[in-house]
Amino acid sequence: MAQIIIKNLRKEFGAFTAVQSSSFTIEDGEFFMLLGPSGCGKTTTLRMIAGLELPTSGEIYIDGAEVSQKPASQRDIAFVFQMFALYPHMNVRKNISYPLVSQGMPSAQVRAKVSEVAGILGITALLDKPVSGLSGGDRQRVALGRAIVRDPSCFLMDEPLGALDAEFREHMALELRALHDRMGATTVYVTHDQLEAMQMGDKIVVMNHGVVEQFGKPQDIYDWPATTFVAKFIGSPAMNLLEFNDMVGNGATSVRLHETAIEVPEILTGTNGNLTFGVRPEHLHLDDTAG
Ligand SMILES: Nc1ncnc2c1ncn2[C@@H]1O[C@H](COP(=O)(O)OP(=O)(O)OP(=O)(O)O)[C@@H](O)[C@H]1O
Ligand SMILES: [Mg+2]
How much is the pTM? Predict the structure, then answer.
C-alpha cells in the first residue's frame, strides 16, 4: 500500500525542461493515470517516481517519507516497462521466479509464490513452457507476473499495452484493472490515449509540454476542463470550440453569441476580452423552430 505525493517536481535535461513544476497526490490503492501527448513528460515523471531519474528540484513522498534523491532499490515499487522484456532462454516459471530468486528467497517459498501468482493471472498451465512460443497476451501476463510476484506496494506502468492491437488492448486493459481491484496496490499508469485513461483511471493527471494542466476524477475533468488544451484533448468526438467577443461580469450565466443569448455554467471571472465557447457534440441538438 502506498500514498505518493508529488510536490513542485521539476526535471531539466541541460537547457531543456521536460517537467516544469508538477504537484499532485496519488492516494493509497488508486489506479492513477498520467495522460498527455507524446513528449509531454509522462515517462520522465514516472521514472522520477521510480527513482530511475533524479529530479532537478521538488519532492516525492511515498507513505510520508521523502524519497526524491533515493535510488530505485530503496523504494518498494515495481516498474513495468513499455516493452515487456522477458528472459528468452528461461521458461515461464523461471521468468516469474527471477526477482524472488535474486532476492535469495528459499526455493519452496518461491514455488508457492509463483503458483499463487500464476493462478491469479490464469497461466498455471504455461509455467513449464518456454517463453519463446507464447502469444503476445501470454507474454504480457508473464511479465506482469514477474512484476507482481514481489508484492510491491506500488506499480508503475509505462504504456504497458502500447504494442498491442486495439481489440486485444481493450481486453488486457480490463484484465489489468481487474487485477488491480483484486490486489489493491497503488498503480501509476502512463498513457497518451484519453479513452483508456477515462475508462481505467480513478484519477487522471493531464500533462502538456511538461506542465500539469489538470488533476482530478475522469468525469470532473470531462465536465469541467480547466484549460482549452484539456477541453480539446479529452472527449471523442472532440469538444467544439468557438472564439467570440463579449463582455461578461463575475457570476454571469449567459453569453451573447451572434446576438443569441446562450446559457452557460456560472462564469467565475468577468472579462471583456476574447472568449472561447465550448460545447460537447452530445449537448447540441438541432431545433427547427429558431429563426
Ligand atoms: N535523457 C534525456 N535527455 C534529454 N531529453 C530527454 C531525456 N529524456 C526525455 N527527454 C525529453 O523530455 C521530453 C519528455 O520526454 P518523456 O519521455 O517524458 O515524454 P513522454 O510524455 O513519455 O512521451 P511519449 O508519449 O512519446 O513516450 C521529450 O521532449 C524528450 O525528448
Ligand atoms: Mg513515454
Answer: 0.88
